[in-house]
Every structure is written in C-alpha cells, then in structure tokens.
Amino acid sequence: MNTVETIEIDVSVELGAAILPVHHLLRMGRGAVIELDAFENDAMRIYANNTLIAKGEVQVDEGKLNVVVTEKVIKPA
Question: Using CA atoms, how far apart are residues 77 and 75, in angstroms rounded to an integer?
Fold first, then answer.
C-alpha cells in the first residue's frame, strides 16, 4: 500500500470552457467576462491526469468550496 500512497495524480475541475483568439484575451482588462459553454446548473467535469473521470457539483460548507462527485464516468470498453 505504501507504493500506491506515493503516486501523484493531477486532479482538475472544469466549470466550463471557451475558445477565443489570443488577441481578445490580451485586450481583456479587470472585470472582463468570458462566456463559458456551460449553464449554472450543469455538472462540472472532474479530470485526473487530463482524463475525464467524474462529474460533480460545487457546495459551500462553512465558507469553503467543495466539489461533490455526483456521477462517475465509465469509459466504454
């Protein structure tokens, strides 16, 4: 079990995504809004080492943001 405990995994949570040209990004200032491809009630995507593994939602508990897994993503065989 000690070997498994030393493996590092990069976990990221994606609220949504947007594609925009670099010149638009460079012209953005404070307060700029980037429109994402997701709605407020859409599930967030949870990745491990850039592989989608689950979907979830944000919850606030005592002022801390938490990501709760609501669905595991199973790869087709």
Answer: 6
CB 45 within 8 A of CB 52: yes
Contact 13, 44 (CB under 8 A): yes
Confidence of residue 55 (pLDDT cuts 50, 70, 90): very high
Alpha helices in the chain (DSSP H): 2-5, 22-27
Structure tokens at 45: 């995507």
- Would you say residue 42 has pLDDT above 70? yes
pLDDT for 1 equals: 60
Distance CA 62, CA 3 (A): 34
Between β-strands 51-61 and 44-48, what pairing exists: parallel, antiparallel or unpaired? antiparallel
Task: Indicate the pTM of the whole model.
Answer: 0.73
